[in-house]
């Protein structure tokens, strides 16, 4: 139902650059549709990024993150082949996860 | 008697373990802070007493954003032992946008895209132990992106 999370994890020197693009409407609960009805709030509240299962980023979001959220972070100490996983949970109890291996830039 | 209390303890433990994931998730998301309509209100909800301005926080954002629905923001903290970076847009209906907590080798750095309602300051609060540091950067917004 939910589109897969697009991810890339590239080792650049000592830093691994992790780029994430999530597919989500990020509705604030203030927008009105064409019928002038309020569209209920629907947004990602929590995002976790792990490296080989160990959390490196835990984020809490409100409604102010743009639609189809984008994220870049930098992690030190990762090697080629290490597993980077991303999971999000939204305010409706929906969630999605993705995993990718670190590659050499 | 001993055996019974041990079993009770066990069942209690099992119940708390079962309940833990749900309650932990619910408790984790900081509703009061994210729903606050003002920056001081959000910071108070996050139990941030006061912030010291710092030149070691770098915010990269456009001077002018045509469309407030997508404003790319890059934040770097050069303060040693940075644990978390919070991003707020001062004049958004709910100013607190995100709080990023770093651990286990993650650099205190993030790029993301945010919504901005009108021209205002983007404020960044950096947590270092029990200390908080602040930087801000103004973005001119031509079209409200908070609908």
Q: How would you characterize the largest beta sheet of chain A?
A: 4 strands, mixed
**Counting H and I runs of at least 4 residues, what is the number of helices of chain A?**
0
Q: Which structural class do the helices and strands of chain B define?
A: alpha+beta
Number of strands of chain B: 9
Explain this structure.
The complex is a heterodimer of chains A (105) and B (147). Chain A is 0% helix and 51% strand. Chain A has no helices and eight strands. Chain A has strands at 6-12, 15-21, 44-51, 54-61, 70-76, 83-90, 95-101, 103-104. Chain B is of the alpha+beta class and 147 residues long. In chain B, strands 1, 3, 5, 6, 8 and 9 form a six-stranded mixed beta sheet that branches. A three-stranded antiparallel beta sheet of chain B has the order 2-4-7, with no helix packed on it. Chains A and B meet through strand 3, strand 4 and strand 5 of A and strand 4, strand 6 and strand 7 of B. Strand 5 (70-76) of chain A pairs antiparallel with strand 7 (109-114) of chain B, so a sheet runs across the interface.
Task: List the defining traits of the structure above.
A: 105 residues; mainly beta; B: 147 residues; alpha+beta; six-stranded mixed sheet; three-stranded antiparallel sheet; 3 helices; 37% strand
Describe the structure in brief.
Chain A has 105 residues and is an all-beta fold.
Give me the secondary-structure topology.
The complex is a heterodimer of chains A (105) and B (147).
Chain A: E1 6-12, E2 15-21, E3 44-51, E4 54-61, E5 70-76, E6 83-90, E7 95-101, E8 103-104
Parallel strand pairs in A: 1-8
Antiparallel strand pairs in A: 1-2, 2-5, 3-4, 3-6, 6-7
Chain B: H1 2-28, H2 31-35, H3 39-45, E1 52-53, E2 57-60, E3 64-65, E4 71-77, E5 84-89, E6 96-102, E7 109-114, E8 120-128, E9 131-141
């Amino acid at each position: 139902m939910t589109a897969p999370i697009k991810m890339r994890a590239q080792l650049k020197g000592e830093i691994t650059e992790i780029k994430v693009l999530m597919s989500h409407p990020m509705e604030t609960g203030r927008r009105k549709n064409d019928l002038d009805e309020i569209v209920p709030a629907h947004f990602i509240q929590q995002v976790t990024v792990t490296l080989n299962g160990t959390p490196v980023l835990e984020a809490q979001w409100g409604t102010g993150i743009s639609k189809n959220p984008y994220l870049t972070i930098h992690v030190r100490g990762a090697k080629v082949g290490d597993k980077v996983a991303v999971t999000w949970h939204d305010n409706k109890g929906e969630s999605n996860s993705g995993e990718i291996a670190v590659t050499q830039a | 008697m001993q055996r019974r209390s041990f079993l009770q303890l066990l069942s209690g433990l099992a119940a708390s373990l079962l309940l833990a994931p749900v309650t932990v998730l619910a408790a984790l998301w900081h509703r009061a802070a994210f729903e606050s309509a003002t920056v001081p209100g959000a910071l108070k909800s996050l139990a941030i007493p006061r912030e010291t301005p710092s030149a070691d926080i770098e915010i990269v954002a456009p001077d002018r954003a045509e469309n407030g629905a997508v404003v790319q923001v890059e934040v770097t903290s050069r303060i040693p032992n940075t644990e978390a970076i919070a991003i707020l847009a001062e004049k958004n209906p709910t100013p607190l946008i995100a709080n990023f907590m770093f651990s286990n080798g993650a650099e205190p750095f993030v790029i993301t895209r945010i919504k901005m309602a009108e021209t205002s300051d983007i404020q960044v609060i950096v947590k270092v132990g029990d200390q908080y540091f602040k930087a801000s950067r103004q973005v001119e917004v031509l079209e409200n992106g908070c609908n």
